[in-house]
């Protein structure tokens, strides 16, 4: 396959590009002006300016597009300027990408576009599936707009998969990377009440989910399932409460978890971001992946943390 990819220099993009390239796929990393090149030997960098939306010759012969573009959600307080950057880096880039695909005479067969479980907002004890209604709040609004821009590719005859990604567990980077330091120092603990649900996925499984979503059933294939389409919850089938997560992480690093962070202190330090990212409750299940037969490598949190923190 020839695959175009935005956001290839991020945590997920780097791992996914490497996995695809290792299996012989050609990965064209779409790099914006002023962005650092992703180049690590997996495919090649292609200059791309979302302002113009022109893919040039990079799109010729492309079989698939993977859209991972978006400014990091947890870096810095959510000032009005930062919130606008979080929104436009996702919605405007996705809009430009779909507009570029519309200009192509021979279009890719599939667009995999990242979204987030933030789509559902703070939902307490409610069990959330791909059919659940969107939630309130800034993240919910951004995710709805983000997914809406990606869905426009469906009228072009492109299969669109919108992957609602949970908390990504990776040794170097992502949410877990930020948590490890205080826990290794013995200063970790639950956030707020600790009763909020956390929906998580290992980086290894997330790469596997993206690759699973790429699959189709070409002529002569023995692939019996229908290709995935629409919204997909890219999370483990076993969400946990924050208190359970912090206990499991403390066990994994052989430290106690006895220093809870009160909700008011988190709000004082982080503002609006504390409620949206740390204190919100999202009990999300990956029903469509289960129905399609995806096999999770790491479904249980304790084993997942052990595999991530102590790879063989």
Description:
The structure is a single chain. The protein starts with a strand and ends with a helix. The chain has a single domain, classed as Rossmann fold. The strands form four sheets. A seven-stranded parallel sheet has the order 3-2-1-4-5-7-11, sandwiched between helices. The chain has a two-stranded parallel ribbon with strand order 6-13. A two-stranded parallel sheet has the order 8-10. The chain is globular and about 60 Å long. It contains ten helices and 13 strands. The protein is of the alpha/beta class. β4 (64-67), α2 (80-102) and β5 form a beta-alpha-beta unit.
Task: Reconstruct the topology from this structure.
Elements: E1 2-6, H1 11-22, E2 26-31, E3 44-47, E4 64-67, H2 80-102, E5 110-116, E6 127-128, H3 138-151, E7 159-165, E8 167-169, H4 174-184, E9 197-198, E10 200-202, H5 203-214, E11 230-234, E12 240-241, H6 242-252, H7 263-270, H8 272-279, E13 283-284, H9 287-292, H10 301-309
Parallel strand pairs: 1-2, 1-4, 2-3, 4-5, 5-7, 6-13, 7-11, 8-10
Antiparallel strand pairs: 9-12
Helix pairs in contact: 1-5, 2-3, 6-10, 7-8
And the CATH topology?
Rossmann fold
The CATH architecture term is: 3-Layer(aba) Sandwich
Tally of strands: 13
Number of helices: 10
The helix/strand order is EHEEEHEEHEEHEEHEEHHHEHH
Instruction: Name the CATH homologous superfamily.
Output: NAD(P)-binding Rossmann-like Domain
**Can you tell me the residue ranges where pLDDT is under 50 for at least 5 consecutive residues?**
none
Question: Looking at the structure, what is the overall shape?
Answer: globular
Specify the helix fraction band.
25-40%
> For the terminal residues, how far apart are their CA atoms?
30 Å
Q: Please state roughly what percent of the residues sit in beta strands, choosing from under 5%, 5-15%, 15-25%, 25-35%, 35-45% or over 45%.
A: 15-25%
Radius of gyration, Cα only, in angstroms?
19 Å
- Give the CATH class: Alpha Beta
Oligomer state equals single chain
Which whole number gives the mean pLDDT? 90
Structural class: alpha/beta
The number of distinct structural domains comes to 1
The largest pleated sheet is described as:
7 strands, parallel
Strands side by side in the biggest sheet:
3-2-1-4-5-7-11
